[in-house]
Design brief:
The chain contains 5 helices and 6 strands. By secondary structure, it is an alpha+beta fold. The chain has a 3-stranded antiparallel β-sheet with strand order 1-2-3, with no helix packed on it. Strands 5-4-6 form a 3-stranded mixed β-sheet.
Length: 166
Amino acid sequence: MRCPFCGHDDTQVKDSRSTEDGVAIRRRRVCSACTQRFTTVERVQLRELSVTKADGRRVPFDRDKLARSIRVALRKRPVPEERQERLVNGLVRQLEASGEHEISSHRIGQLAMDALREVDGVAYVRFTSVYRDFREVEAFSKILADMKPIPGETDAPSPDDSQETP
């Protein structure tokens, strides 16, 4: 493994441990040249995936790009990091298990929207607004109207609900 600080090819593994969900291994490494420490993450990759963009281009699937998009949508939402990581891992496993080597960006976006809709309504609207490139307020209204209430979420009581009528 090449050192990200000095580029030296000789690094040593000092510690290895499994991640919480057991789908990756975190390794602490130290560079023998500059003595800097860094962490690497090793994951199982079932198959090489490529993404077909809307304009027809094909690019390699980038798990980190999907993870960044999910994290941006969930920023400042009450969803723990571990849950976010499990969400991304689940999406990647779903894509790899599909049996397809080429997956459309539209399908990836739809899977991500469906997963976020189950986790957090606000994150779903954020992701959808960027993914679908909303330019009008009406588009937000339509997506909100189409949303079904998520089981377990309740509406906040209105001020009139707390007042007793004589």
